[in-house]
Amino acid sequence: MSDTDTRYARHISVGDTNDGGISLWLPKIGNRTMETVNQSLADGFQKVTAREVLPEVSPLAPPDALPATCACGTVSFHITRPNEESYIPHSGYPDLQYAACSHSSEFMANPNRDKWWIRANGTKYLAGTCACRSCRLISGFEIQTWTFVPRSNIFFHVAASNGEQTITPLDFGTLPSGILQTYESSPGVHREFCGTCGATVFWHDKWRPDVIDVSVGLLRAKEGARADTWLDWWTRRCSFEEETTSGRTGEPARVARELIDGLERGLRSGDKRELNEGNR
């Protein structure tokens, strides 16, 4: 196979997501329609559509809390619905909503103090996709999914000495050692991950200490990986899509650009379908 044969071909293990995950936003990459496969590569291929592999699931959490865990269980926490405290923090706009490269620093600082992370009449949190170079190199994946949650709505499950779990509000300064590992990806910017299984957990910085980026892949919503009853997905843009080819040239850059272009097309198409269905 030559370099020019490099291509994305299929979504695998889609059944694990329960709702299709972001495969629903990537039906095509370039001019190719993606195959959707319920099983893993080791089990062989079973070609199906995303809608055919969405099984019913039993409730995994009470309605007022959304559990989240990493693969090994070292990191365990839950998120609560927006409340009065959720509106207290201030944060500049995220690149997800407005490309920082196209807007002034004054605008991005959010001088009107919009509470952009609260959505759907105060019932959901904003979520979206990111293609920045840092997320890509740290996670090893082209696309990272984040949701933006006030720190006051995040509660860690910490094992007590008697073997039982205690619930504690997220405080990076007092959280017991051994749960989260931290990498300072740039001055003042911290990324937390599980030191055992390596799962990406949080992104936060010193300028926005009370609104935390939470890795959506850890959320255990009963409806599926997108946690649609908790999250309002931004479909107008993939954050930092301008960095897709950063540090890459030739075929790797072309293939990456094709993927993110396909994602943004799928996001916008999904947004239009939802609007049309809502107007019927």
Descriptive report:
By secondary structure, this protein is α+β, with helices and mostly antiparallel strands. It has a domain of 183 residues: Metal Binding Protein, Guanine Nucleotide Exchange Factor, Chain A. The protein has 3 helices and 17 strands. The strands form 4 sheets. Strands 8, 9, 10, 13, 14, 15, 16 and 17 form an 8-stranded mixed beta sheet that branches. It has a 4-stranded antiparallel beta sheet with strand order 6-7-11-12, with no helix packed on it. It has a 3-stranded mixed beta sheet with strand order 1-4-5, with no helix packed on it. The longest helix has 29 residues. It is globular and about 55 Å long. Keywords: Lyase, Metal-binding, Zinc. InterPro entries: CENP-V/GFA, Mss4-like_sf.
Radius of gyration, taken over Cα atoms and rounded to an integer in Å: 19 Å
Number of strands: 17
Instruction: State the name of the first-level CATH class of the domain at 61-243.
Output: Mainly Beta
What is the terminal separation in angstroms? 48 Å
Report helical residue fraction: 10-25%
Annotated CATH topology of the domain at 61-243: Metal Binding Protein, Guanine Nucleotide Exchange Factor, Chain A
* Number of helices in the DSSP assignment: 3
- Mean pLDDT over the full residue set: 87
> Are there runs of 5+ residues with pLDDT below 50, and where?
47-62, 275-280
Taking the sheet with the most strands, its summary is: 8 strands, mixed
InterPro entries: CENP-V/GFA, Mss4-like_sf
Domain CENP-V/GFA: 124-229
Keywords: Lyase, Metal-binding, Zinc
Organism: Colletotrichum karsti
